């Protein structure tokens, strides 16, 4: 506390002797530069990283404000600062996973992600703050995966792996990452950053959760690898004192660099015995000057820090190292071939990512089986439970005829007994029962039904009483339309069979004057299942692909895996293509199983080309993957991603005419329905399967065209969102 108070006093006296202090500071800066230059081995004055006037904000929150930082070549740079001051953000800007809003960054001679530059790529080893490891991988899988991306041969990877397992004191290399302790996982993550012997190491808190002995060993290794002068390291740590081993430290606060220089020089300048005290003094001085200037704009400490030290360049740290902020930004150029190569996807990376997905699938056999079987289960449930004939429908029968040869008995015998269960009752019991919900209908016959019906059949003119008495009277509970319709249909069919039985060739005399000829397409027995299934197959394929894609990407981003792969040199396009190809494998198996079930088990007809059927379903799967990519590009959190995927499920299912014909949708909504990915596609699939149509028919090619259109739109949208958000 005494020291803190002294620091505050010193800061207070700064204002009264401003000129004097300024001169002293300049002198100190000169001394610092001299110290740093003296610490540089000959020929290493070049800088590995240069940040000039770097600004970066998240929305309205300014995280980096005119930050200047220089990491000399062949040095360890310890970046220190309190939690939330912007260290991780700065590192992400340096490796290129975040774009800066203003300023200039040069990493190993060029801006990050510059065409033809290997940053991100092989030149940089990045250990993010998150563990960023695949839990289903073993240590060996993890290092092999990054080895593949960096283009190491299997032999090189093995040699490095053996060294790193030994050096980082890792468990057996066949241990699963998910079974490792927190500290062991961090060491695997560090191993992945060190794997390819990069020229630049960017380590975000590599020693958190690591025991002091291993921490010392890691620092010793870092000091050793920089000795050659080829490797430069920037490291953040919460253990401020361990940064004394760094060649240069940068003290950061509220998005600005307060000081930068060799640790001893920083401590000397602030008459502090430890780096922690030096940092405390710097903060106090910064606060003093800030409050003296009265410049406390709203927006929190990040903005306050911009007004550090009155009368000097705000962006300049107290102890600048290397070229000043005013240095001109160099211009870079790359010819079109390099630019084209930079944009084109690398098959090596795509293959590495696909192998990664396959290895993960292999490690999760339960989940893979579920993925394969889920669509089959869903479509089986649809075929079994939707559109079939109701069974054992309870119907009350009030028959006032008693004779065993009565027509009423004969007619009732033609009623399908498996679907209609007849319960003979008295008039009162029957109506009590239907009012109590025990029966779906009451079928009534008058006592003269047989004689009246005979008269109706034989005589040209009959009275109204004869017509009424010779009719079957039916009272229905129409609250369930499907059951009521089935009862009506069964009664009509029973009557038709009865008439044919009684009148034989003369039955046409009592037939309705409407004759349904052989159907042009489909069969007379077509049920609702036949209508629903094609659309359901498309919808199932689409949604499973949406779910898998959206969730896997959101989770990978959340765990820092996407960033880590990007820094290793994998582009967003390569990630998307690899995901698309590996998902295509899953979709293909799903589709084969789906088709086997609907065509062979549930015997749905397919009059058209099986190739067209398969291609259309695969394209719908790709639409699902593309839509999943849009969700994962736009949404960071898995809960929101889930909600987005589920949120569109029901409206899309209803509006696409999958469970009920589009013709029933009222007009303003019909336009939306027509634009949806599955409306015309379902229609096209029905046309192929039931009408045997090919691509020459508009209703078929329109389904393909709309699906391809959506695929393109979703993929472009996902790419644009990813670009805008990086
Ligand atoms: N994706 C983001 N969206 C919005 N704000 C963010 C985001 N990432 C970081 N921030 C904010 O930016 C500020 C700096 O965060 P950053 O992670 O760079 O700090 P840090 O110095 O690395 O902290 P720590 O030492 O705790 O890791 C914090 O206020 C944080 O809340």
Automatic annotation (TrEMBL):
InterPro entries: AAA+_ATPase, ABC2_TM, ABC2_TM_bact-type, ABC_2_transport, ABC_transporter-like_ATP-bd, ABC_transporter-like_CS, P-loop_NTPase
Location in the cell: Membrane
Cellular component GO terms, alphabetical: ATP-binding cassette (ABC) transporter complex
ABC transporter domain residues: 49-279
Stretches with biased composition (Low complexity): 1-19
Pfam families: ABC2_membrane_3 (PF12698), ABC_tran (PF00005)
Matching CDD domains: ABC_DR_subfamily_A (cd03230)
Membrane topology: Multi-pass membrane protein
Region listing for Disordered, in residue ranges: 1-34, 288-310
Major localisation: membrane
Keywords: ATP-binding, Membrane, Nucleotide-binding, Transmembrane, Transmembrane helix
GO molecular function: ABC-type transporter activity; ATP binding; ATP hydrolysis activity
ABC transmembrane type-2 domain: residues covered: 496-725
Record-annotated membrane-spanning stretches: 531-555, 576-602, 608-632, 644-662, 699-722
Name used for this protein in its record: ABC transporter domain-containing protein
Native organism: Zoarces viviparus
